[in-house]
Design a protein that fits this description.
The chain folds into two domains: 96 residues, Beta Barrel (Elongation Factor Tu (Ef-tu), domain 3); 159 residues, Rossmann fold (3-Layer(aba) Sandwich), CATH 3.40.50.80. Helix content is 21%, strand content 35%. The chain contains seven helices and 16 strands. A hairpin with a 2-residue loop joins strand 5 and strand 6. The radius of gyration is 18 Å and the shape is globular. The two termini are 28 Å apart.
Amino acid sequence: MSGPVRERCQVLGQGRSGVYHTLTVAAPRVATASRAGQFLAVLPGTDHTFRLRRPFSVHRVGRSGGTPATVEFSFAVLGPGTQALAALREGEELDVLGPLGRPFRPPATPTACLLVGGGYGAAPLFLLSEELRARGCRVDLLTGAATAERLFKPAESAAVGDSLTITTDDGSAGRRGVVTDAMPALLASAGGTVVYACGPMAMLAAVARTAAAAGVACQVAVEEQMACGTGICFSCVVPLFDGAPGVTRMARTCIEGPVFDGAAVAWAELGLGELTP
């Protein structure tokens, strides 16, 4: 796996779906190295107003003549940094460092895979589905959000996998409830042997517990606040079980993650319920 590179990237387009924005940038070196589950560290603006980069999952990789040439990332406007990104127009430039972190790991042999996303946490699952289907895997996509407006690209999601299941907390789209309500039946019907998930930490903890109860392997791409994105500041650590029962250590999400074995994360230490290895 190639190391990260820094590129000055020209904005080629910006899209909007619900409350989420998607930027497409020309980044051939970053695109070539990017895998599903990895992220980009983006520096908004050109006037040095923003001192820290913002981390965003790689959503898609675009190709030109068969060669990776563009990357896409998605975000919700939450503060000055994402406001600056949302204001960018075609032709303007961004400073992008990536890809960073460890990607999702594909199964050793083709199998049925359940991809679970919450809100715009579903963004990296689009690229993951491409990678898995290229390996001959069946892909079922399960995506949820609090409301229909907060679903990530629901109109495009139907083409991501072999099936699509949508849940919303308020029932405004798809099935009323949360993603873990639908997981057992989907795993049973498709014969799923691997679960891949990305979204809010509380959702990931619940997905990991549900997968463990079904005896299914689970990989989670955690969402933690990051400052440097390169392992220097230790601001993004999560507790992992470390061999002996009950013993944990702190792992840097930006270096050892963001993808972890769902059964290895000490969810209880994060206040998200118990899951023992």
